[in-house]
Amino acid sequence: MRNFLKICLAFIFGIFVILALGFFFVSKNPVNHPIRSSDKHHIFVVFLGDSLTYGVGDQTREQGYTGRTIKLLEKTFPEYRFSFKNFGKPGDRSDQILKRLNHSTEQQAAVKKADAVVMTVGGNDLRQQFMRYANAPDKIQLSRDIRQGEDRYKQSLTSLLSRIHELRTQAPLFLFGNYNPIFVNTASRNDINQDVQGYNAINKQLAESQQGGHYLSVFRQLTYGQYQGRTQIKQLVKEDRIYNGQLANPLQSALLRGRDKIKNNYISSADHFHPNNLGYDYMSKTLFNSMRENNQWQKK
After folding, report:
1. Alpha helices in the chain (DSSP H)
2. Is CATH 3.40.1080.10 correct for 32-293?
3. What pTM value is reported for the model?
């Protein structure tokens, strides 16, 4: 009988040790286990990125596309309660967004709990390249210099998305592309559009390679604004060639000071760079339509 009791006690002790070790290793590995809120009626959205996420240029105090998107979601999905955190910071490049994320326990906790993560990135990386090489002797040299920065940007964005993936577990990711804010006043410089599209291709490729990743394009609407027709664009090109002949360096002038010779109705007249209310309306509708179609964020 004593031997039987000893065997039972040893067996029970062994089970206890296994369970204890299992709990220890699970608690040390939270990334592998989704910690999204168990409240099926609450949806938490986290916004990361630069000034576009922050909402620079928005005159409605709705934090740009972020607040607008939440309003659209609330109206369309009344069965849910929505809340969000906006961690956008003006001027941040991809490496700076990653640095802030790695140094902020608040951001990390928010991304872990998120039901959806949304980000704008790349505009400042590209703008830095343009500013660095704005004095290039010709547009061929400029594009060559800009393309050299694409590999660095791809590496930087890969690191950023990898870190977000570690934190967001099952939450889908929605990643915006960028646009050319100065097109209507530099219409003859098609090379700038090509450079922006080069960076956008990186965003698209890396976003769609992520599990639950979705790419959002706003290039055409925000770049061309109200000038969507071929005839309108040709006229912009013609006027730009005439006007640029009066400037020593039209590209640098447009980048540094902004020009309002012609207005893009989707871009802020305050800085000629960020979206205005109409531009943010378009961004929010683009995001909303993608979230409605790709509804992994909804809790069953």
Report:
1. 2-27, 51-54, 65-76, 94-103, 105-113, 123-133, 139-168, 190-209, 219-224, 230-244, 250-256, 277-293
2. no
3. 0.83
